[in-house]
Task: inverse folding
């Protein structure tokens, strides 16, 4: 079982991201991810945008899991943002999004990429976890909620 700690570092949790659109959210996350992993912001943004063109990563219940594979990336990287104000993300249930978990994978990640996606989506399908995330406004509190293990054993 892949743990969230493997994907997410405390400095990649954003507590009150101020954005007004899906595009702006992806741009901002690409910028933060670029700072964290030392790859080009534009390359990350393009990968995310390309993925959105295939179909929205707004999975419903206010959650989006934008993701993509990136040349030059050495390992799976996650970034979490809690938005100050929910935004339209073309979600499958038409609900605005306020919790975003960005996932970037090396081009050759294969099954690990899918395992990580499954892990993140399972965590964020837990309504009580999401309620707590929405109620927390400090990065360390959010990180603790995202990485606490009891949730990781629930299917």
Result:
């Amino acid at each position: 079982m892949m743990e969230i700690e493997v994907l997410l570092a405390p400095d990649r949790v954003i507590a009150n991201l101020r954005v007004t659109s899906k595009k702006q959210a992806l741009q901002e996350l690409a910028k933060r991810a670029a700072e964290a992993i030392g790859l080009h912001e534009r390359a990350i943004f393009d990968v995310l945008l390309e993925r959105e063109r295939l179909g929205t990563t707004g999975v419903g219940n206010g959650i989006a899991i934008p993701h993509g594979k990136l040349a030059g990336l050495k390992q799976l990287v996650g970034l979490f943002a809690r938005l100050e104000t929910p935004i339209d993300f073309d979600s499958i249930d038409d609900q605005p999004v306020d919790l975003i978990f960005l996932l970037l994978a090396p081009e050759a990640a294969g099954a690990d990429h899918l395992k990580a996606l499954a892990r993140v989506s399972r965590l964020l399908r837990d309504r009580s976890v999401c309620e707590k995330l929405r109620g927390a406004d400090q990065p360390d509190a959010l990180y603790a909620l995202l990485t606490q293990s009891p949730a990781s054993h629930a299917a």
User: Anything to note?
Assistant: The chain is about 45% helix and 25% strand. Helices lie at 4-7, 22-37, 41-54, 111-125, 127-135, 139-147, 150-153.
